[in-house]
Each structure stands twice: as C-alpha cells, then as structure tokens.
Amino acid sequence: MFKTKFIVSIVIFVTFLIITSIIKNQARFIEKKISNINDKILLKEKNLNRAQLEFFYLTTPSEIEKRLNIIAINNYQPIIHSKIFFDVSDFINIKNKTSNLKDINEKKIEKKQ
Fold first, then answer.
1. What is the model's pTM?
2. Average pLDDT, stretch 19-46?
3. Cα–Cα dist 63/53, whole Å
C-alpha cells in the first residue's frame, strides 16, 4: 500500500516535472519569436519615419524649385490651388458642375442652329 502510493506520487511528480519543462521551453521559444518580431517592427517604424521625413523635406515648394533649377527646367509653374482636390467628393462635385455647363452650352448651340 505504501509502495503503491509512493510510486504513484513519484510518477505524477516526474510527469509534472517533464510537462513543466516542455511548457517552459515552448514559452521561451515564443518569447524569442516575439522579441525578434518587435525588433523588426521597430526597424520598420524607423524606416517609415525616415521616409516620411524625407518626403516632407523633398516635397516642400522651395526644395522642388531648387531641384528644378538644378535640372534647368525654366517653364515650371506650380499647380493652382483651385486645381488641388483634398477629397474625391470635391473632384466629383466640380466634374458634375463642368459637365452640366457643357450640356447647357451644347443645348444653346443646338438652338442657334
């Protein structure tokens, strides 16, 4: 009786010891993967920040004009502010307005003929 309880408790102890070791190793591997992925994310964020900084610097009007002078493009004209659309709906509204005006002008031409 005593031997069976002792053997059962030893078997349970050893099984839990092995299971704990396996779980610990798996958790360590997962933590390493997470750490590697976090490092990659930080690197990508740094690259993104650099790219955004370069984009903002290179797209400033003064920098564009400097680069155009280097290339020797003399007939550079900036885009008129009214031609810059901040939203697709603005473009569609203006497109609808111009298409309506064209229709009206065409009807007037047809009436004159």
1. 0.47
2. 96
3. 13
